[in-house]
Amino acid sequence: MNVVVAKSAGFCWGVRRAVELARKTAASGATPVYTDGPLIHNEHMMRRLREAGVEECPDPAAIPAGATLIVRAHGISPERRRRLESLPIALIDATCPDVAKIQRIVRQAADGAATVLILGDPGHAEVVALLGCAGPRGRVVTSPQDVEALPSDLGNVCFVSQSTQPEATFEATAAAVTRRFPGASIVNTICHATRNRQGELDSLAEDCDAFVVVGSPASANTQRLAQLASRLKPTVVVDSADQLDPGDFAGVATVAVTAGASTPDFLIEAVTARLQTF
Predict the structure, then answer these.
(1) Residues 6+ apart with CB under 8 A from 1
(2) What sign does the dihedral 225-226-228-229 (CA atoms) show?
(3) Domains defined along the chain, listed by start
């Protein structure tokens, strides 16, 4: 079976930066090193980081004084940042710069008394942090239908997006915001890596019979990528190579492999190698 790997598959630059920062910190001899929750949404990568001396910490208040804590790539709210800065630890910020830019936009809009509408997955770490930046002026929407259900007296409105939302969803929801709130500020904050990854599916679909999407079930952008791929061609979603079943590829001559932004290269390479044996 012929295997084609998407050029955009795997780590985006923000995730790669966070992982390299964690590894560099551990290698420098700074011990112990912790992350404030999972640095990225991939347990295979987190396991390798643990082997390198980086541990995930569910409760920063419990880590020893003098330890180093790394802020996850998804970012944190201003309130949580103040709490962490009050602890007797060294704090290193691995927030994706694209996410940090969205946080600045949200803070400026909220400081200007605008209602901030955030297109995103409720409960996702990035969205939770953005809500924290907006304070009481923030609201999460997931679709044009959510916008239609909003009260009409929101005043000035600023509309932004979680960095990994689908472009089509953003455009449809932005149109609904403009209809409901003429004059609203619309800021497309979907990152370039997400646009490239999702946009590449169309060209790959022209030359393949099926997709394989590699990534963690905990990764929202991986699952979203899989949904988009499945609209184009039969799609198999796996967390690792050992989940591949040859029976899923009967009659498939060419398969295209893509992966979420938190999927490391070693998983993509293992999946590709196994597919080539089918």
Answers:
(1) 249, 252, 253, 254, 255, 275, 276, 278
(2) positive
(3) 2-10+192-275 (3.40.1010.20), 13-96 (3.40.50.11270), 98-186 (3.40.1010.20)
Other CB atoms within 10 A of residue 31 CB:
11
User: Which positions are catalytic?
Assistant: 126
- The least confident of 121-125, 131-135, 155-159 is 121-125
Distance, CA of 208 to CA of 228 (rounded, Å): 15
Position of tokens 């999946």?
A: 271
Beta bridge partners of 161: 119
pLDDT tens per residue, range 177-196: 999 999 999 999 999 999 99
pLDDT at site 30: 66
In whole angstroms, what is the distance from residue 116 CA to residue 71 CA? Answer: 24
- 221 Cβ contact partners less than 8 Å away, ≥ 6 residues apart: 164, 194, 197, 215, 260, 261, 262
pTM for the complete prediction?
Answer: 0.90
Which residue, among 187, 89, 74, has the nearest Cα to 130 in the 3D structure? 74
Give me 75's structure tokens: 């970012």
As given in the structure block, the two tokens for residue 57 are 């910490």
Q: In DSSP terms, which residues pair with 211 in a beta bridge?
A: 235, 256
